[in-house]
Specification:
Layout (H helix, E strand, L loop, with lengths): L4 E7 L2 E7 L3 H19 L9 H81 L1
Antiparallel strand pairs: 1-2
Helix pairs in contact: 1-2
Length: about 130
């Protein structure tokens, strides 16, 4: 059983059947992109006087330029993402440390409140004893 999809597309006015493992929508999107590049190239000065080889090279250069530009943007985005992930990791570590310190401080507050209550009780007891004398 074949996983390839066959699709009839038109590029540069020529209809052909392409076959691939990608979805029909994806293959049509690629065909539309190439047709868009062809239309852009047709607007270039002297395009009609160029040989077919030159037109093909111009198309390849334009597609290659788009690819390299997109790849460079992706590479830059991946670098930013890695930096943000590192920053996020550091912030998570800091948050964990702050939570730990908070819990320790909270426990100290409870202990001090308990001691304060004991001390207040002792003071009341001593004041009561002092009044009795």
């Amino acid at each position: 059983m074949s996983d390839n999809n066959d699709l009839r597309i038109t590029i540069g006015g020529k209809t052909l059947v392409v076959s691939g493992g990608d979805s029909a929508e994806h293959m049509q999107k690629v065909a539309d992109y190439v047709n868009g590049k062809l239309e852009e190239n047709k607007k270039s000065p002297g395009y009609e006087r160029m040989s077919m080889d030159t037109k093909t090279i111009l198309l390849e250069l334009n597609i290659g330029d788009d690819y390299i530009t997109a790849k460079d943007k992706l590479d830059d985005a991946l670098i930013v993402l890695a930096e943000k992930n590192k920053e996020l990791y550091e912030l998570k570590q800091e948050l964990s440390s702050v939570k730990s310190k908070y819990e320790m401080a909270k426990n100290q507050v409870v202990e001090l409140q308990s001691k304060a209550a004991e001390t207040a009780a002792k003071i009341i007891k001593l004041e009561t004893e002092l009044k009795k004398k």
